[in-house]
Write a structure and sequence with these properties.
By secondary structure, the chain is α/β, with parallel strands linked by helices. 35% of the residues lie in helices and 17% in strands.
Length: 333
């Protein structure tokens, strides 16, 4: 049965590499404390239980690639969570990042659907939506910042929905991505999370940074051109000198940050690309951005693909992006 697996200390202790004279983030991070009335089901977390923690950031994994397969992509994104978490837990705890800033909540466990057809996968992706958005809603309602490691980009929809419901208003989103993910409302998958969020009025203004001209169809390009809620800077234009400042400056008070790892060159993913952002381009953008985002969603990366491709570097990249996000947010606090 699909559920939220909440971590105890024993769940993460074996992931930490201990060395004499060193302290790792995993030794300092906080974990969720159960309160009377909490259950072991999906509704296991309460706003009160989250509020008691001094940690500002709540780390959650969604290790699935059902939404990607429902969009005719290659399986593999389910592999990113555990290695990414391990890499993050083994960062040094020091003056730059202590570890107590982060509460590691756990991960969403998703069963494979019995129906592996396109319709079956899309129906299952909708079930994942219903599992994830209440978790995000509670985290945001508790005054915390969710950091979610996926998983497919289908999970942008429950991220946006949960944040919007907690804030009682549609939110803005800044998406660093090669693809707009504005495909038709044809059943849920990784290519239409933003379409559904717009349709259901959870998403207000949608800003896309780094879209590839070669990989967005004409219908989507026309939609971006004519819908005032949609703004985009293409990677092809960034190569000619365009930057993210104009888009970021237009973001509203509540805005989510989406980073699809397939926009970074040579990062293992279903849509791996030889031409895209360098890792340090994205790190610089996160570290130097003054915007206080309401959530961070890192998706589509993998350490092992179904077709046999493997990479150990994706995990460390995820750890860098999570730590950069926390450092940037807390820099002037």
């Amino acid at each position: 049965m699909d559920n939220l697996k909440i971590y105890s200390r024993s769940d993460i202790e074996h992931l930490i590499i201990h060395r004499d004279g060193e302290t790792k983030l995993g030794e300092k991070i906080n974990l969720y404390r159960h309160f009377e009335g909490d259950s072991s089901s999906t509704a296991a977390i309460s706003i009160e239980g989250l509020k008691v923690s001094k940690s500002k950031f709540v780390l959650l994994g969604i290790p699935e690639d059902i939404g990607i397969r429902a969009n005719s992509g290659i399986a593999g994104a389910a592999s990113a969570w555990r290695p990414g978490l391990t890499a993050f837990l083994n960062i040094q705890s020091n003056r730059f990042l202590n570890g107590e800033e982060v509460l590691v909540l756990g991960h969403v466990e998703v069963d494979e659907p019995s129906d592996s057809s396109t319709k079956g996968l899309r129906d299952k992706a909708a079930e994942i939506d219903d599992l994830v958005y209440p978790i995000i809603e509670r985290i945001v309602a508790a005054g915390k910042i969710p950091i979610v490691i996926g998983g497919g980009h289908n999970n942008a929809y429950p991220m946006i929905k949960g944040t919007s419901l907690a804030c009682k208003n549609p939110i803005d989103v800044f998406n660093i991505d090669a693809h707009a993910d504005l495909r038709e409302l044809e059943g849920r998958h990784s290519g239409n999370g933003f379409s559904y969020a717009l349709k259901e009025n959870y998403l207000n203004n949608y800003f896309m940074y780094g879209l590839h001209q070669n990989y967005n169809n004409e219908v989507i390009l026309s939609q971006i051109e004519h819908d005032p809620k949609l703004s985009a800077v293409f990677f092809d234009d960034i190569l000619a000198g365009a930057d993210a400042n104009n888009l970021v400056n237009e973001l509203g008070a509540v805005a989510g940050l989406e980073i699809d790892l397939d926009c970074i060159q040579n990062v293992l993913s279903s849509a791996e690309t030889p031409s895209g952002f360098a890792v340090n381009d994205i790190r610089k953008l996160v570290l130097t951005n003054a915007k206080k985002f309401s959530y961070l969603h890192i998706c589509e990366g993998a350490t092992r693909m179904l077709d046999g491709r493997v990479s150990k570097l994706t995990a460390k990249l995820i750890a860098y992006l999570v730590s950069d996000f926390v450092k940037a947010y807390t820099a002037d606090v």
